[in-house]
Fold:
Amino acid sequence: MIVLAIFTIFSGFIFKDIFIGSGTNFFQNSIYINKFNYLDNNCIPLLIKLLPIILSFIAIAAALHSSMFDYRLTIAQSSKFYNIHQFLFNRYHIDTVYNLIGVRFLNTCFILYKIVDQTLIEICGPNLIRNLYGYLTKL
Structure:
């Protein structure tokens, strides 16, 4: 995930001129911009532009520090948020919802396919031709 995050940041930096650069016609008529309410990207201060990256690095450093060095903080967090942690950590709940919504729905669709589609194909396809041939030869 860290590698993907790094590539995302760098690709966003490289391709930002395509999407929000001044004078670009990449989105030509797909995005409507009112000329009276237009905030140019270059008018935003650099600190505001870099704020999400700075806060992300601070959050990563705080998470690593609290999990690796400050055990008292993790013990206090684990006692406060034990139930939420168990609910999110336990995959049973997600698997149950997935099973109810996804797997049973797909099994129902498959059964309907087997019953309706294949039966109709067999009745209307080769069996119909065979029965018609047999009926017409008896005439």
Q: What stands out?
A: Helices lie at 2-20, 46-68, 71-80, 82-89, 92-124, 126-138. Residues 11 and 53 are 14 Å apart (CA to CA).
